[in-house]
Write a structure and sequence with these properties.
single chain; 5 strands; globular
Length: 223
């Protein structure tokens, strides 16, 4: 009986597998923010995208799209964009104002975000009742009065003027930078409103906003 060790060719080839199998590349988590507006929201969330994609591109990738659609049509566009994405979106954030749209459309969009979510893609209804400017105002103070959205502009102008940064207009591109120092206060104020509105439909949650949920998700990547 030969005492020579067996040839490698006679052994199981498993010893070669470690060399052939390359470690799997970790893919970043892809997010899509699709907004009803084409100016205000894309500018605000686009500033976050620029920071995140340039700093944490290996961990998270953020896309922002101003659709110009509202409620139900906005959700359908979000779903179509997710379906056609080459990378696949883990999270799709549907950002819309309630404005004066029919209550059933406002609520149905939120329902669809829940019912159409899968293990691969989660849809989030990021509504603001009445509009995104409520989220901006909550950076400066808590407000519970159900005011018409046209009252938000003068209040924001008052706040911004006191900071020495001019009047508020819809297409300002610097709102993220202006509001950043007060982000924690805005989150706390929005969460407080959310507790008050617990059990209410989005259309009845006035004032109220889910913008804080998206900002809280992104906040760890903004420092």
């Amino acid at each position: 009986m030969s005492l020579k060790p067996p040839k490698k060719s006679d052994l199981d080839k498993s010893w070669m597998k470690a060399r052939r199998d390359k470690p799997k590349k970790i893919q970043p988590e892809y997010h899509l923010i699709i907004t009803e507006g084409t100016d205000t929201e894309p500018a605000y969330f686009g500033a976050m995208r620029d920071i995140i994609n340039s700093t944490y591109s290996d961990r998270i990738q953020l896309g922002v799209h101003g659709a110009g659609d509202n409620t139900l049509s906005l959700f359908q566009k979000a779903k179509n964009m997710a379906a056609s994405s080459a990378n696949g979106y883990k999270h799709v954030w549907v950002v819309y104002d309630t404005d004066d749209f029919p209550a059933d459309h406002i609520n149905k969009t939120a329902e669809l975000c829940v019912s159409e979510s899968t293990e691969e893609t989660t849809y989030h209804a990021i509504w603001s009742n009445q509009c995104i400017e409520l989220w901006f105002l909550l950076h400066f103070s808590f407000m519970q009065s159900d005011l018409h959205r046209t009252s938000y502009w003068p209040k924001l102008t008052e706040m911004l003027t006191s900071l020495g940064v001019g009047e508020y207009v819809k297409n300002r591109t610097d709102m993220y930078q202006i509001l950043l120092p007060y982000m924690d206060a805005a989150i706390a104020n929005a969460e407080k409103l959310d507790k008050i509105n617990k059990g209410k439909l989005p259309s009845a949650s006035a004032p109220g906003t889910k913008a804080y949920e998206l900002v809280k998700k992104l906040k760890p990547y903004l420092s």
